[in-house]
Amino acid sequence: MQDPMRKILVFKYFFLVILxxxxxxxxxxxxxxxxxxxxxxxxxxxxxxGPQITAIATGTYILxxxxxxxxxxxxxxxxxxxxxxxSGKILGQLDTAATSLEFLPGSHGIAAGATLYMAxxxxxxxxxxxxxxxxxxxxxx
Length: 141
Known about the structure:
alpha+beta, Immunoglobulin-like, four-stranded antiparallel β-sheet, three-stranded antiparallel β-sheet
């Protein structure tokens, strides 16, 4: 007959192994609201969320976004294009203290009446880039 304590110990070990496998399979747990899960090329479990474009004057816009709370993120990359894109032209790369960028489309050859598309991604110290945020579009005034 086996010792009952040994059976309990084996069960606890088995339970912990199964729990660890589940945590790894779902992306490590800890992903909060709005997260995209743990992608293999992502810098964090959540990409950049909440982007918006605000017109502050004729032909001048501010793109803003929510900061990514992941300490592995060390900068943001801002993209723009004149059509829907999977990767547009890089407008700039900003450190994590920035959560907005002023943009003058005319200085990039984008005329009034054109549709401007913008998005943001997060970059990690490891060199990986998150997927771009939701693309935003606005007709340039």
